[in-house]
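Obj.: predict assembly geometry.
Materials: sequence records (below).
Method: joint structure prediction, all chains together.
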Amino acid sequence: MFDTAIAGSLPKPAWLAETEKLWPQWKSQGAELQQAKADATLLWIKVQEDAGLDVIGDGEQARQHFVHGFVEQVEGIDFEHKVTMGIRNNRYDAQVPQVVAPLRLKGRVHAFEAQLARAHTRKKLKFTLPGPMTIVDTVADRFYGDKVKMAMAFAELLNQEALALQADGVDIIQFDEPAFNVYMQDAADWGVAALEVAARGLTCTTAVHICYGYGIKANVDWKQTLGEEWRQYEQVFPALARSSIQQVSLECFHSHVPPELMQLLEGKDVMVGVIDVASDVIETPEQVADTIGLALQYVPKKHLIACTNCGLAPMSREVAMAKLDALAKGAALARQRYGS
Ligand code: ZN
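Observations (raw structure tokens):
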């Protein structure tokens, strides 16, 4: 009961990449960089296991950014000539690559870190991929001229990699779709359908993570404009509830999401965000257990997974480690409180 998991990313150690940045520069290259990525992946597996988490991830140590890590392995994209583009409905500017030709995978994208992680943990292994709609919102289109067409093309490539990750022994494949909270109507109209193309044929557990973004200033400022009640999920959850995706990761603690919106996910496993990624203050186990208790009003016990609100990539390593501990201790307390 109350399995614990992280949304996906964890901070990169200072010897791997620049710290506390969303698009950090690597500190080495070639074989040396590959070794550093492997070492960082192993380090975080150990830390997650020591904290007592039930679902382990690679912490996204082998990719610079959660979207570009995938896109770098796609043919038809010009990575040499990035352009500045407002992303997430112009919330902030990013340097994005351009789609210039039909999309095709160059080969496997995440085999290295997925196989490494699988070889080093016996616990459930979750692996994250960016969702099609979020990818489309993080690249500049100079070829397709149609968002939906391009999203479906990316979904086919994601599906190819997801099936290969499943063959690598991954237990849960999670697609990250922060864009669902920005373009809610599009998400309901075609975003969920694209997600199902990406998940087609998978027999492992499938998940989607929808959040209000990393704890960076642009996101914190944006949240200030969303008012007292954040109802973005209300438009997307019914479409997800009808979909084949099995788990949904959402923000809860310190968010203004009305918790009753979780009811819209009947039948799904709900990864409830009990750890705030926009604050360095470490949650107490009591706070974590309280948030689980709140969610239990709307989510059956057997469907509740305790999770972080989003990735921890831009945080300091110390804070992230303390938050993983708080997550595990809080879930343990919740099992005592609500177990019987
Ligand atoms: Zn997130």
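Conclusions so far: The mean pLDDT is 96.
To do: check interface contacts against the pulldown list.
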